[in-house]
């Protein structure tokens, strides 16, 4: 079923765009070149952080941390292998991406852990970055309960990512 | 500054553990393979990210963002009562949510900042209002139609069906947004306003 989503979406969007007499192809190219700029802006971080993350993995620290967090994570039904991702995700988007790619590569993209990692990355945001950008620009100093509420949302995301992958695959 | 600490911290932890585990040669090799992996990963997900940015641009040009905002207006009106009196705020807000939904992160941020600025309380401009907290929760819960970046990573690792995680991603983000909003409502009732 999910195989239909992407091709049909592509067709539907193009049809609506043509119907509105937009230059669909030009827009596709403009957007794709913007995508290249986005990519270029994350490449330096990706290189630096993947270096750090692969050192961390090679040192055996990740396994030790996973073992340490095992009881807590097992209680909630979250795979302990994702512990370090859960800790980094709210702080840095590119670090989480680098870490997620490593985890998916190690355990397999279609394994339960690989899929859980992908759903976690796809359904959460870099919470602290978002808060600092939005509130910083608007001059808000007292954030009140924003951080606890956003972290509750994040935690729900990690929990549901683990559960939905178990239910749906 | 946070990242400098994270980077240094990761180096320190790696070195400590590699001495404890006696595998310093693996860690030394990981320095080079990691840097190489960074550029390989970036190149192999480039296609997915660029194509999806193109599609998102077409969506915006075709007026799908506006259509979505209209569809969403009953919901945004409930979560953000201020939008009923302020039409510009209502537009910025729903455009922010829709841009996030379509995966247009770069378009979403300026709109969200504009919305937060319009929400400021004139008597107490440095304090977050309840509506601001809800907006942040909605933004951090990341309700996204197509998570293109993560699909790109999956495809780059040889996954033949990188989009089969979509239903799980949708259910997950809806739950986290719902529970986050609920938490924001409850906390908003008890938290002090200064």
Task: Indicate the topology.
The complex is a heterodimer of chains A (169) and B (194).
Chain A: H1 2-19, H2 24-58, H3 61-76, H4 83-88, H5 93-107, H6 112-123, H7 127-138, H8 146-168
Helix pairs in contact in A: 2-5, 5-6, 6-8
Chain B: H1 2-21, H2 24-61, H3 64-79, H4 87-101, H5 105-119, H6 130-140, H7 148-156, H8 166-190
Helix pairs in contact in B: 2-7, 3-4, 4-5, 6-8
Largest sheet of chain A: none
Order of helices and strands of chain B: HHHHHHHH
Number of strands of chain A: 0
Average pLDDT level of chain A: 90
Average pLDDT figure of chain B: 89
Largest interface: A-B, 99 and 104 residues
Tally of separate helices of chain A: 8
Rg on CA atoms of chain A, Å: 19 Å
Structural class of chain A: mainly alpha
List low-confidence stretches of chain B.
Answer: none
Beta-strand share of residues of chain A: under 5%
Rg of chain B computed from alpha carbons, rounded to a whole number of angstroms: 21 Å
Distance between the termini of chain A: 13 Å
Instruction: Name the shape of chain A in a single word.
Output: globular
Structure write-up:
The complex is a heterodimer of chains A (169) and B (194). Chain A is built from 8 helices and no strands. By secondary structure, chain A is mainly alpha-helical. Chain A is globular. Chain B has one domain. Chain B is built from 8 helices and no strands. The longest helix of chain B has 38 residues. The mean pLDDT of chain B is 89. The chains are: A mainly alpha (169), B mainly alpha (194).
List keywords for this structure.
heterodimer; A: 169 residues; mainly alpha; 8 helices; B: 194 residues; globular
Report a brief summary of the structure:
The complex is a heterodimer of chains A (169) and B (194). Chain A is mainly alpha-helical and 169 residues long.
């Amino acid at each position: 079923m999910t195989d239909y989503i992407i091709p049909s979406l592509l067709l539907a969007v193009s049809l609506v765009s043509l119907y509105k007499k937009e230059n669909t192809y030009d827009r596709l190219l403009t957007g794709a070149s913007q995508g290249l700029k986005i990519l270029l802006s994350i490449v330096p971080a990706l290189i630096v952080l993947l270096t750090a993350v692969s050192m961390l993995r090679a040192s055996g620290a990740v396994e030790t941390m996973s073992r340490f967090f095992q009881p807590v994570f097992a209680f909630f039904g979250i795979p302990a292998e994702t512990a370090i991702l859960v800790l980094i995700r709210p702080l840095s988007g590119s670090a989480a991406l680098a870490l997620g790619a490593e985890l998916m590569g190690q355990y397999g993209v279609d394994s339960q852990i690989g899929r859980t990692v992908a759903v976690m990355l796809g359904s959460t945001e870099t919470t602290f970055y978002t808060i600092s950008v939005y509130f910083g620009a608007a001059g808000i100093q007292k954030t009140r309960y924003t951080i606890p509420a956003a972290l509750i949302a994040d935690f729900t995301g990690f929990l549901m990512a683990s559960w939905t992958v178990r239910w749906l695959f | 500054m946070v990242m400098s600490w994270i980077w240094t911290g990761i180096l320190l932890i790696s070195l400590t553990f590699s001495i404890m585990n006696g595998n310093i040669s693996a860690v030394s090799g990981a320095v080079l393979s990691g840097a190489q992996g960074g550029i390989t990963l970036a190149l192999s997900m480039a296609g997915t990210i660029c194509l999806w940015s193109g599609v998102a641009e077409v969506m915006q040009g075709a007026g799908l963002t506006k259509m979505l905002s209209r569809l969403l207006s009953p919901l945004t009106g409930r979560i953000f009562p201020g939008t009923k009196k302020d039409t510009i705020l209502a537009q910025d807000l729903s455009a922010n949510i829709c841009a996030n939904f379509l995966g247009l992160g770069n378009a979403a941020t300026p709109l969200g900042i504009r919305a937060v600025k319009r929400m400021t309380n004139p008597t107490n401009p440095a304090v977050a209002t309840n509506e601001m907290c809800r907006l942040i929760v909605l933004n951090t819960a990341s309700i996204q139609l197509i998570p293109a970046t993560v699909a790109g990573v999956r495809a780059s690792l040889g996954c033949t069906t990188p989009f089969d995680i979509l239903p799980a991603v949708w259910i997950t983000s809806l739950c986290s947004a719902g529970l986050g909003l609920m938490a924001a409502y409850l906390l908003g009732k008890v938290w002090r306003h200064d």
